[in-house]
Specification:
Helices cover 56% and strands 6% of the residues. It has 838 residues and is an alpha/beta fold.
């Protein structure tokens, strides 16, 4: 735990004014690099369009700031930071956030005793916490909570601590600039910047050196984020796909490497602060090369470690010193890790509106705390090696360092997998993969990690003795990295490098949820998820923006449990008022108008099967694509073969492909003569997962699926995670059986069968299994209609309910209805049964 906050030292003879000056040539070089950085951020859509806009404002502000008199620069930064809030959050949200922040800062400076100010801050915090939890009404929109919490939940502690321990006066610009830091408007997850370090680092080194370091760190952050995207989209596995040692090793390594997103964001944030003269220390120091647990704690999220050390560890050591140095270190270290666990939940509360207490958190921080204590005791007894001057190098020392680093890395991969698991039970289920088939593939990711660690452990090339040459070399590396990334991102370039390279480049150029997190997001519609807070996925930030009172399907009271294979159905004759409109369920348990039990003559009655996007969660009655399409088909007929069209909406939220067998049975009872099966993606994976759930719960299984389960060795009542792994290799057979059952029975009843692919609103999500699903549907006798491009050319925000809710909104449903009408107008036979309708 013994470490100090590093700051760059400069000769005392040089004044701050001298250090703050930058030559016109150096400024032009920095400005040119920032233009390329902005292009890089735009080309790879780093974080969000709003952040790219904010970066443009920050870079333009840098150009003005660099030539202002030094005394004006901090007020300019503070003013620009305040202006960024309405720009990013909207005028009303920005004003409310600034007003609340000013009240909290003002309490810190009241002319009262420290304990009275603490009581006032605690009282204000309790009031805000009650409003955040929804116990008390708040006059401001919920959108401000994540950013307000990010700015004040930890920074306020540091600020008040330093007010009491530092005699240097604090200016208004320092207070405002510290709390409302310019990049914070876009990042709920923000490093805990130390106020004393932030203040003292302002132009603590020559301006052009600080600016160049900031640019270097921004580029480093972008590279981390691009590496993260590659791992997130192409390497990371869901636990259900961990079926053998090779997949287990891939899962463990890739899951830990997802932390690159946090290190990338923090480098990006601190790099931006450097552009305004804040010569802050780095936030992460090659943490993958930690050679012990104390070394890991020192290297990863350094700002958090320094915050805990300064505010809690040193005071605890001092308080416990009378019990002896060893006991003081043990007690203070465990105190810090217990507080880290608690403050992690505290952070989640301010960002999400609820506390997070799960066994994984408690055990993770407990285990890591014990390991750091043991390492600390070892260092106290044997001494920590400190290298002074040029270190001596030997093969023995190198191999020992690599072995220790590799062992630490592997152990952290295992511990990290536990922390990010959905539950302790799920984590224990991962290790059943060790009973799978062993192959050389199991060594691939551990071997790659070992190679990277070995290369990283080699002695670093000595910096040139000439500081100017060193800076020139670093500047050249930064510029070369930026130019290479920008060139590769250009479509005309990467498309010439082959389809594989083009596909990879395209996937890295935009931020979207992976198939694993899209599955979690879909689950989040129907149940509470806990694992999205572990900073290992983009889903965490999506959930952080979701209002605590966002209405979900599962809590809406529209469904009821039944004892059959389908488990749930809509409650007949129920009407629910939602923020999006009224949702009415008819007497047959459908989200639709009422229909007669028998089909009228000369009527095409088509049953539309599907999940919540078919049912129409998020739009009012009459605004679903099924209702809009039915209305238009009757007003503007596409065929003279029928007098009327009735589309029966059998969509049920949360239904997986096997559950559509029960929905089809209900459709037959209402004499449907056509069936439209709407697939929304990942049909194979979801089919296997649902069969595993049904077997685990010992539900009655349809005969076609029973035989597949028996072939897979999946026994009723077994662990669900284990069942999912057994059934996943048979997912194609499971889905084929579902399609064959619906398609075969439709043919036997003289019905037409149409399979429609309706994508998720998020571009590219859930589509990795589409082609195989199309093949299986066609083989089962379905006519096929692929609407993969139905939302193409439209901003996702204009067709979905919200960033955290991927259901199509009213505009999205209109697009789907219009597209289906055009398809049926061009090919009415896809809708009509094979025999004439009487």
């Amino acid at each position: 735990m013994n470490s100090t906050i590093a700051t760059d030292r400069v000769p005392a003879s040089r004044s701050v004014e001298e250090r703050g000056r930058i030559g016109f040539g150096d400024f032009c070089i920095a400005a040119a690099q920032l233009v390329v950085v902005l292009l890089l951020l735009r080309q790879f859509e780093i974080e969000s369009k709003v952040f790219v806009q904010l970066a443009g404002v920050a870079f333009a502000g840098f150009a003005i700031h660099s030539f202002l008199p030094l005394r004006w620069r901090l007020p300019f930064f503070a003013a620009l930071s305040l202006a960024s809030l309405p720009l990013v959050l909207g005028l009303l949200n920005g004003i409310w956030l600034i007003a609340i922040g000013f009240v909290l800062i003002g309490i810190c400076h009241l002319p009262l005793a420290a304990y009275l100010r603490v009581l006032l801050l605690v009282g204000a915090g309790a009031l805000l916490a009650s409003q955040r939890a929804g116990l008390l009404p708040a006059p401001w929109p919920e959108a401000i909570w994540p950013i307000l919490g990010s700015m004040f939940m930890f920074r306020l502690i540091v600020y008040f601590y330093d007010l009491g321990h530092d005699t240097a006066p604090v200016s208004r610009a320092q207070s405002v600039g510290y709390f409302f830091m310019l990049p914070n408007a876009c990042f709920p997850l923000f490093p805990v910047v130390d106020f004393k370090t932030w203040r003292r680092s302002h132009y603590s080194e020559d301006a052009y050196v600080t600016y160049q370091k900031g640019i270097d760190w921004i580029v480093r952050g972008v590279i981390h984020l691009i590496l993260y995207r590659y791992i997130y989209y192409h390497v990371a596995l869901p636990p259900s796909e961990v079926t053998g040692p090779a997949e287990l090793s891939q899962y463990l390594v890739s899951n830990f490497l997802l932390y690159l997103r946090v290190s990338g964001l923090f480098h990006l944030i601190v790099g931006l602060l450097h552009l305004y003269g804040f010569n802050l220390p780095e936030t992460h120091n090659r943490y993958l090369l930690a050679s012990s647990f104390t070394d890991f704690w020192r290297r990863i999220n350094i700002y958090w470690k320094d915050f805990m050390q300064k505010v809690f560890y040193f005071p605890a050591v001092f308080a416990l010193k009378r019990f002896g140095t060893t006991r003081a270190v043990i007690g203070a270290t465990m105190f810090v890790f217990v507080l880290t666990w608690f403050l992690h939940s505290y952070q989640w509360f301010w960002l999400r509106g609820r506390w997070l207490f799960v066994p994984q958190d408690i055990l993770f921080w407990s285990v890591l705390g014990v390991l750091v204590v043991l390492n600390s005791l070892y260092e106290i007894k044997h001494g920590r090696k400190r290298r002074l001057g040029k270190p001596t190098w030997s093969w023995r020392g190198f191999c020992l360092l690599v072995a220790k680093t590799y062992a630490t890395f592997l152990f952290m991969c295992v511990l990290w997998s536990f922390w990010t698991a959905e539950s302790v039970h799920d984590w224990l289920g991962l290790w059943s993969a060790l009973r799978g088939r062993y192959s050389i593939d199991a060594l691939l990711y551990p071997a790659l990690a070992l190679a990277v660690i070995a290369l990283g452990s080699l002695p670093q090339t000595a910096r040139p003795a000439d500081a100017a040459r060193a800076r020139a070399r670093e500047r050249a590396v930064t510029i070369a990295s930026m130019v290479a990334l920008v060139v590769v991102s250009i479509e005309a370039v990467h498309t010439r490098l082959g389809p594989d390279v083009a596909t990879l480049a395209h996937s890295l150029r935009s931020a979207h949820l992976s198939r694993l997190d899209n599955a979690k997001l879909e689950r989040g519609y129907y149940e509470g998820l806990l694992s999205v807070d572990r900073f290992n996925s983009q889903l965490w930030e999506v959930y952080a923006k979701q209002p605590a009172n966002w209405m979900k399907i599962e809590s809406a009271g529209l469904k009821r449990f039944v004892s059959g294979f389908e488990q749930v159905e809509l409650i007949p004759s129920v009407a629910l008022s939602t923020p999006h409109g009224t949702v009415s369920i008819n007497r047959w348990g459908m989200r639709d108008q009422d229909y007669a039990p028998t089909r009228p003559p000369k009527t095409l009655r088509a049953a539309v099967l599907g999940p919540s996007s078919v049912m129409g969660w998020g739009v009012g009655d009459g605004a679903t694509f099924e209702a809009l399409l039915e209305e238009r088909l009757n007003k503007e007929p596409v065929t003279q073969a029928v007098e009327r069209v009735e589309l029966l909406n059998f969509g049920i939220p949360g239904y997986q492909p096997p559950q559509q067998l029960a929905a089809f049975d209900r459709a037959l009872r209402l004499e449907a003569n056509s069936v439209i099966y709407v697939a929304t993606g990942r049909e194979l994976t979801r089919s296997a997962a649902y069969l595993a759930e049904a077997l685990h719960k010992r539900l009655p299984i349809p005969l076609r699926l029973q035989s597949i389960a028996e072939r897979a060795g999946a026994r009723p009542g077994a662990d669900e995670a284990a069942l999912a792994k057994l059934l996943q290799p048979h997912s194609g057979a499971i889905l084929a059986a579902v399609y064959a059952e619906i398609g075969g029975r439709a043919k036997a009843h003289g019905m037409s069968a149409l399979w429609v692919f309706l994508p998720q609103v998020r571009a590219g999500s859930w589509q990795e299994e589409t082609q195989q699903s199309v093949t299986l549907a066609a083989a089962a006798g379905f006519a096929v209609l692929d609407l993969s491009d139905v939302y193409a050319g439209h901003d996702p925000a204009s067709v979905r309910l919200a960033e955290w809710d991927d259901h199509p909104n009213a505009n999205g449903h209109r697009l789907v209805a219009d597209r289906l009408y055009k398809e049926f107008a061009a090919q009415p036979d896809k809708l009509l049964p094979p025999t004439p309708i009487r």
